[in-house]
Amino acid sequence: MSDEAKRWNESAKIGQIGSKLREHDGHLALFEQFPIRRTWHSGEWWYSIIDSMAPLSGSPNPRNYWSMMKKRLLKEEGLEVYTLGVHLIPLPDKRGAMQPTDCANAEILLRLIQSVKSPNAEPFKTWLARVGAMVMDVGEERPLRQQYRAQLDQSDRDLHELVEFHGVVTPEEQAQLNDANYGGLYNVACEMDMLRRRRTLPGALPETMGSLELAANLFQRELTAEAIRKGDIEGIDAIAEKARDVGSDIRTTIGRQGGTMPEDMPQYPPLPPGEWMPPNHPSRIQWDEPAEEVEGSSIPLIEINKPECFNPQLP
To answer: Where exactly are the structural domains of the chain?
Structure first.
């Protein structure tokens, strides 16, 4: 079997595990390229210790590594892991069967990491703090997130199309508007500030937002578009200022009502594009449609780097 076929089969198995986990209040988190099963238990996330040992130990057989580690902890430190608080919790294996699995919450996992000499220990601790802050999708929250995420995407695209008729035409100006949309609502200089805070990729901020945070962003985009139309605002500077003012007003209202500030609202497991993108979304690849081939044609690849924080004073 080719390496490509092996990777394909492995990704299919991972997808099946993720689906099975969601059926049982679980989630498949990724540390670098390593999938780590976790489940919501007693009001907090519990992680598969064997999955966690894979990136930490570098061992090709993390199950054996964990087995040997349990014996070593008992012999050298007199530490019995189940006394420490490790739980046996059912998690799906690669075949989708639910199997009792050694699991640890963040506190216990951090204790175990101390006994693993690994260059990945510190990055793993940082990752654990980030994903551990995510809360579980319960009740109607996930369907609401899917609905609001799709609406926010449409509002974002409509706003950026609208401002083209008001003098905002370059990629740099569009990036400046994007920074302004986040700037007022989150009290930051630009989108990059929030990307650093949440350790995510450009364009991926909404994927982990809850329904309330998505609604606040949706409200900001719609009010900004309405103000631009009614005031016939022209030019990127005036439009960006209006976008920030609208976001700041919404932020002030949230604070006056005693609400949680948008940047402090709880984060959720990322929404896959397939759960919220409509079939006709521009970003969807139409895999079922044959590609049109033009003989002798070539497509140039152009890389555009968005500035961290757009500064109109710079040349």
So the answer is: 3-132, 141-275
